[in-house]
From TrEMBL:
BP terms from Gene Ontology: carbohydrate metabolic process; glycosaminoglycan metabolic process
PANTHER family, per database record: BETA-HEXOSAMINIDASE, BETA-N-ACETYLHEXOSAMINIDASE
Catalytic reaction list: Hydrolysis of terminal non-reducing N-acetyl-D-hexosamine residues in N-acetyl-beta-D-hexosaminides
Residue ranges of every copy of the Beta-hexosaminidase eukaryotic type N-terminal domain listed in the record: 32-150
Domain named Glycoside hydrolase family 20 catalytic: residues: 170-526
Enzyme class: hydrolase
SUPFAM superfamilies, sorted: (Trans)glycosidases, beta-N-acetylhexosaminidase-like domain
Catalytic residues in the record: 336
Matching Gene3D superfamilies: Chitobiase/beta-hexosaminidase domain 2-like (3.30.379.10), Glycosidases (3.20.20.80)
Species, as recorded: Quercus rubra (Northern red oak)
Keywords: Glycoprotein, Glycosidase, Hydrolase, Signal
Organism taxonomic ancestry: Eukaryota, Viridiplantae, Streptophyta, Embryophyta, Tracheophyta
Protein name stated in the entry: Beta-hexosaminidase
Family: Belongs to the glycosyl hydrolase 20 family.
Length: 579
């Protein structure tokens, strides 16, 4: 028989509020986000999920897989998701309820490193146990997430008679969070990692420190956090870091640390003022040109490459961070080095007056730190500026591509092309598409540009990277556009970024989700259908449904449309689809 539909109420608890959502009677089918690469369901049908349903891994023991199975079994048995649009399919009680999901992993030893195999196959027959097979534990976790989205209702129903083969298009799919400008408690970070996982993303890029605060308690340099954090209740201890890293492993998410240097280090001056240039100075001195600023935003300070003590302190930090984070990628920053800040130091002034250059200063710094990071068995990630900045950059000979990855954030496809054509691997975080903080206005005070009586906005939204990046902007971005096949192979993937000048825990979930979900799907299975056409139109209804399911799971994702649009398919589009 057809699955019955009822006009009912879906109660969604966000932790802060309860949403009462009337359920429509528009017909639909079960969806998975991100959309699987291969999804075969020739005769959509469902059966009951047994009250004693189990997930079994015969003769396979793995601490993180066991944790994931326990987590997903609890989710499946308690979520009782009620789709906004009830699925149209044959619901049968003539077959026994689904009793078991058998999970089989070929390689239990594969570590959670870049490019680990995340593929899986999921078969849910009309009779007998469902089967999930994967090469690695991490692929099995992705399959468990898919299975969880195929279960809904009360009593629980599960889609049957289907086959899925799935694997990501890109190996690096991440979210960057800046915890220096504003502090995020550990619980907020854990919730973010959990959300990354259910969206089948696999990297939490933790931009831990910056000029504004140094919240990481480094065992060998405790004064950096003691004096450079916002306070003793706003720092991360080694225990906190271990908790976050282990939580990441349990959810198949790598935690990549970033200690941004040599710029963005003003907070270091609280403990070591002698190794920081232009610390605690006004960022844009009155009457000076933009080119003569000391920082690109309030919060000045850069490490002094000419001071030997700089490297004594920094190497202790690097060593401790490498110990705290087992992840093979170490992000060393190297973005936005401002000439005026270095020029404010007398020793550097002398260096420059004797024929030295600012780029040579950076090369001294890189030559003094890059080999050390590599010696710790790390691949070094830098922001693109290190070789592409117009004023201060190093020659490519200083950064061997086999040990270096560059993360791009400026000039869209053009800079991606420059990076990969130079032989470097690239992570794409284009500010024009993937910066989640954009479009909320500028944060600097005493700003006369807003004193405007003829227009309600200023400067294209008032922030340097405005406008706001909508989910469709993110979904439609093709990170390998204009690249040859060989160049495209050097693009590891992408990251959306939430810089925290105007973000903190009160807005965290809504700033990231569901816009990051849009990138998650494009990097997992693409943004085109089997004919090669962009699929943003049909993705809208699916993302609406996924957003509501995330909210039900405790992720405060913002809405993308009125509920009316979901109940009236196609009526909110710019162009009406042909019948």
């Amino acid at each position: 028989m057809l699955l019955p539909f009822f006009n009912s109420i879906l109660i969604i608890s966000t932790g802060l509020a309860v949403l009462s959502v009337p359920i429509s009677t528009v017909e639909s089918t079960i969806q998975v986000w991100p959309k699987p690469r291969t999804f075969s369901w020739p005769q959509p049908q469902a059966t009951l999920l047994s009250p004693t349903f189990t997930i079994s891994t015969p003769n396979q023991i793995h601490i993180h897989l066991s944790s994931a199975i326990k987590r997903y079994l609890n989710l499946i048995q308690t979520e009782h998701h009620i789709p906004l649009v009830p699925p149209t399919l044959n619901f049968t009680t003539s077959t026994p309820p689904l009793q078991t999901l058998l999970v089989s992993v070929s390689d239990l030893t594969a570590p959670l490193h870049h490019n680990v195999n995340e593929s899986y196959t999921l078969t849910i027959p009309t009779w007998g146990p469902a089967k999930l097979t994967a090469e690695t534990v991490w692929g099995a976790m992705r399959g468990l997430e898919t299975f969880s989205q195929l279960v809904w209702g009360d009593p629980l129903r599960v889609a049957v008679g289907l086959y899925i083969w799935d694997a990501p298009l890109f190996a690096h799919r991440g979210v960057l969070l800046d915890t220096s400008r504003n502090y995020y408690p550990v619980e907020d970070i854990l919730r973010t990692i959990g959300a990354i996982s259910v969206n089948k993303m696999n990297v939490f890029h933790w931009h831990i420190t910056d000029s504004h605060s140094f919240p990481l308690l480094v065992p060998s340099e405790p004064d950096l956090a003691a004096k450079g954090s916002y306070g003793p209740d706003m720092l991360y201890t080694p225990y906190d870091v271990n908790r976050i890293v282990q939580f990441g492993l349990e959810h198949g998410v790598r935690v990549v640390p970033e200690i941004d240097t040599p710029a963005h280090t003003g907070s270091w001056a609280e403990a070591y003022p002698d190794i920081i240039t232009c610390a605690n100075m006004f960022w844009w001195p009155a009457g000076s040109k933009w080119e003569d600023r000391l920082a690109s935003e309030p919060g000045t300070g850069q490490l002094n490459p000419l001071n030997p003590k700089t490297y004594q302190v920094l190497k202790r930090v690097i060593n401790d961070v490498a110990t705290l984070f087992p992840e093979p990628f170490y992000h060393a920053g190297a973005d936005e080095i401002i000439p005026g800040c270095w020029k404010a130091d007398p020793a550097i002034q002398s260096f420059l007056s004797n024929g030295g250059t600012l780029s040579q200063l950076l090369e001294i710094f890189v030559n003094s730190t890059f080999p050390y990071i590599v010696s710790l068995n790390r691949t070094v990630v830098y922001w693109e500026d290190v070789i592409l900045d117009a004023n201060i950059k190093v020659p490519t000979t200083a950064l061997p591509p086999e040990h270096t990855i560059l993360q791009t954030w400026n000039n869209g496809h053009n800079n991606t092309k420059k990076i990969v054509s130079s032989g470097y691997r690239a992570i794409v975080s284009s500010a024009d598409f993937y910066y989640l903080d954009c479009g909320h206005g500028g944060f600097v005070g005493n700003d006369s540009q807003y004193d405007n009586q003829t227009s309600g906005t200023s400067g294209n939204g008032g922030s340097w990277c405005a406008p706001f990046k909508t989910w469709q902007t993110i979904y439609d971005y093709d990170i390998t556009y204009g690249l040859s096949k060989e160049e495209a192979n050097l693009v590891l993937g992408g990251e959306v970024a939430l810089w925290s000048e105007q973000a903190d825990p009160t807005v965290l979930d809504a700033r990231i989700w569901p816009r990051a979900s849009a990138m998650a799907e494009t990097l997992w299975s693409g943004n085109r259908d089997e004919t090669g056409k962009k699929r943003y139109a049909e993705a809208t209804d699916r993302l609406n449904e996924w957003r509501y399911r995330m909210v039900r799971r405790g992720i405060g994702a913002e809405p993308i449309q009125p509920l009316w649009c979901i109940r009236n398919p196609g009526m909110c589009n710019t162009v009406q689809s042909a019948a």
